Amino acid sequence: ETGVTQTPRHLVMGMTNKKSLKCEQHLGHNAMYWYKQSAKKPLELMFVYNFKEQTENNSVPSRFSPECPNSSHLFLHLHTLQPEDSALYLCASSLLGGAGSYNEQFFGPGTRLTVL
Amino acid sequence: AQSVTQLGSHVSVSEGALVLLRCNYSSSVPPYLFWYVQYPNQGLQLLLKYTSAATLVKGINGFEAEFKKSETSFHLTKPSAHMSDAAEYFCAVSDGNAGNMLTFGGGTRLMVKP
Fold first, then answer.
1. What is the C-alpha to C-alpha distance for residues B19 and B35, in angstroms, rounded to an integer?
2. DSSP letter string, A1-64
3. Angle B34-B94-B75 (CA atoms, 0-180°, nearest 5)?
4. CB-CB: which of B42, B46, B106 is closest to A104?
5. Do B54 and B65 form a contact (C-beta atoms < 8 A)?
6. CB-nearest partner of A102 from B90, B94, B106
7. pLDDT at residue A89, rounded to an integer
8. Residue B30 contacts by C-beta under 8 Å, 6 or more apart in sequence?
9. What angle do CA B2, B34, B71 make, to 5 degrees?
10. Residue B31 carries which DSSP code?
11. Which one of A23, A43, A55, B6 has the largest count of C-beta atoms within 10 Å of its C-beta?
């Protein structure tokens, strides 16, 4: 595997379900991000992890719970979601402090989430 | 604080015509600027980036962008549109200093007519 991978690619869940989204980066990066992309809305940054420590939480509801066990893996745990949470969830990674990194982020293909 | 404005949420061109997608930014320090492309049901792919070297930046798929400090712009162009260019395009800015945040514009959907 190369780049940034996300599983599953599609997920349908009920409002009472618990599910998790997984992201893995194979680029040797040390920062990872979760974004939410809804139809007709700008890309929304949800969480940022630098060196496995959460450094940003953009007022995301507690029904979304991130986990970053190491620099290569990032999870988004989902619980009692609402239909308006249906969106494309994108994971990205970048290299902090590396020569020539320029904060460039590399994105995974996303998980299309539908909440019924 | 930094911000990005993409003028025109939808742009339509004919195949073979010039593509021009507009991006204006605001940044308190010299910025790094990026253009990403997103095809349907896929993630964002980096097209090109400006990192304070040459002001005219060439990217993949024949796209290029010119950094104009006086106009605070970083417009994306391609001389001749191809049907496969139909996608959504995002401009983003990073201040290059402490922190690793990218600020994205709202996106421009490019449609290419045969």
1. 14
2. --SEEEE-SEEEE-TT-EEEEEEEE-S--SEEEEEEE-TTS--EEEEEEETTEEEEE-S--TTE
3. 35
4. B46
5. no
6. B94
7. 97
8. B52, B96
9. 60
10. P
11. A23
Chain A residues near residue B4 by CB distance under 8 angstroms: none
Amino acid making up residue B100? N
Q: Kindly report the average pLDDT of chain A as a whole number.
A: 90
Tens digits of residue pLDDT in B25-68 = 998 777 889 999 999 888 999 999 998 778 999 999 999 999 99
Neighbours of B32 (CB within 10 A): 21
Structure-token pair, residue A54? 């959460």
Tokens matching residue B81: 């549109």
Cα–Cα distance between A51 and B13 in angstroms, integer?
44
Are the Cβ atoms of A90 and B43 closer than 8 angstroms? Answer: yes
